Amino acid sequence: MTDSASSRARQTRIVHPDVELSPGFESFSTPVMRASTVVFPNLAAVRAADWRNDGQWRYGLHATPTSAALTQRLAQIEGGRYALLQPSGLSAISNVYFGIVKAGDDVLIPDNVYSPNREHANWLAHDFGLSVRYYDPMIGAGIAGLIRPNTRLIWLEAPGSVTMEVPDVPAIAAAARARNVVTAIDNTYSAGLAFRPLEHGVDISVQALTKYQSGGSDILMGATITASEELHHELKRARMRVGIGVSADDCSLVLRSLPSMKARFEAHDRSALALAHWLKARPEIAAVLHPAFEDCPGHAAFKRDFTAAGGLFSVVFDERYSPAQIDAFVEALELFAIGWSWGGAHSLAMPYDIASMRSESQWPHRGVLVRFYVGLEDEADLCADVARAMAAALG
Ligand SMILES: *Cc1c(COP(=O)(O)O)cnc(C)c1O
After folding, report:
1. Domain range enclosing 369
2. Ligand 1 pocket test: which of 85, 86, 88, 90 has the largest number of ligand atoms within 8 Å of its C-beta?
3. Which of 119, 164, 188 is the best mutation target for the ligand 1 pocket, counting ligand atoms within 8 Å of the beta carbon and taking the most?
4. Residue-wise burial string across 86-119, b where 16 or more C-beta atoms lie within 10 A, e elsewhere
5. Cα of 45 to ligand 1 centre, how many Å?
6. What are the pLDDT digits (tens) for 100-134?
7. Which atom of ligand 1 is nearest to the CA of 161?
8. Of 51, 201, 214, 221, which sees the most CB atoms within 10 A?
9. Tell me: the pLDDT tens digits for 203-237?
10. Which of these, 319, 334, 332, lies nearest to 390 by C-alpha position?
């Protein structure tokens, strides 16, 4: 303790303690560094601070050592160089819009896109002077014919998060690059484990860390990952201007889950495939929409570009069942909860009215679609639960 410190009032010494953190303590957990204000050693350091430099700490909202530990790992998983965290997957999507496009720009979006992305884009088109057009997700290299001089951004999603068509990502990315159009992919489905879009020519990968990265159904977080310094800076500037960030506590929970993500993903993948095969053989089911199945649109691209599928797939029920019967089936399930946000240990089921969600491409099925998320329960119990609910609701 210095002389001046020892003469201070007790209250001041509570605010300015003379505590040394125990040297020699080590553990596997990442320290939680909460911060609003980041403290600078002197004013020269304040004036030299450059927001572009990820190695400098400026403000708790922008980054802390805890968030940096997470962004570094996310960039590694996807084979990128930079990552930014946002408070939800949707805000990561929003960050892409506000970082990359301005009024008058044109944006192309796959018709099977995650619905809140469509809602966001339509809002920007209606109120902020953006041109927004939807394309058939199976368009492949044909996207070149849709690119206009003012096209700035092309979104991709692989596969579509409800209907599971797998686009030809390298073909779309190449057509975009040839015309200097930025590509962003919603890569939440594969968690960056089973598909690495940056290696297929995509500029920005978006993750809802809410899903597999969290793994506990208790965190909301998103990320943008890129290998381009220029795009990283554009996203980072927009993120600062909008004033979004994440808590170190939430980052530490995601960091705790990340080492087990691959093992969990593989378990989800195995169980989902088992349930999908079981459903395929059932007379109640008209189609199983799983990218690993040969009749899934884009199956060839899936086989070429992906290493696994994870826990998510959909089925289309035979058209003889009414939407009310399918609702009764979903409500009769005991092990599958009704909810949207997947990626945790618990299985989920949700019916969707796909025809009302599209504007550009034809939806070929007439029966009701139910999306399943297969959690970490025992496979045989899940199949038995579905069989029981079918018997109860569908006769
Ligand atoms: C869940 C999800 C999001 C959004 O994530 P939130 O954290 O819930 O905002 C975006 N895209 C896809 C494909 C998702 O499944």
Report:
1. 259-394
2. 90
3. 188
4. bbbbbbbbbbbbbbbbeeebbbbbbbbbbeebbe
5. 38
6. 999 999 999 999 999 999 999 999 999 999 999 99
7. 13
8. 221
9. 999 999 999 999 999 999 999 999 999 999 999 99
10. 332
Taking the centre of ligand 1 as the mean of its atom positions, its distance from the CA of residue 83, in whole angstroms, is: 17
Phi, psi (5° rounding) for residue 363? -100, 115
Residue 56 belongs to a domain with what CATH number? Answer: 3.40.640.10
214 and 239 co-located in one domain = yes
Tokens of 354: 């796909």
Show the tokens assigned to 223: 């990320």
Q: How many CA atoms lie within 13 A of 255 on its CB side?
A: 21
Closest residue by CA, ligand 1 atom 10: 89
Secondary structure letter of residue 335 according to DSSP: S
Joined together, the tokens standing for residue 346 give 């618990």
Read off the pTM: 0.96
Q: Is residue 129 in some structural domain?
A: yes
User: Same domain, yes or no, for 198 and 126?
Assistant: yes
| Domain identity same for 228 and 294 | no
| Pocket (CB within 6 angstroms of ligand 1) | 88-90, 114, 161, 186, 188, 208, 210-211, 220, 222, 341
Name the strand (E) or helix (H) holding 287: strand 285-289
Q: What separation in Å is there between the alpha carbon of 342 and the centre of ligand 1?
A: 9
Tell me how far the alpha carbon of residue 187 lies from the centroid of ligand 1, in angstroms. Answer: 10
Q: Whose CA is nearest to atom 8 of ligand 1?
A: 89
Relative orientation angle of helices 261-280 and 379-394, to the nearest 10 degrees: 40
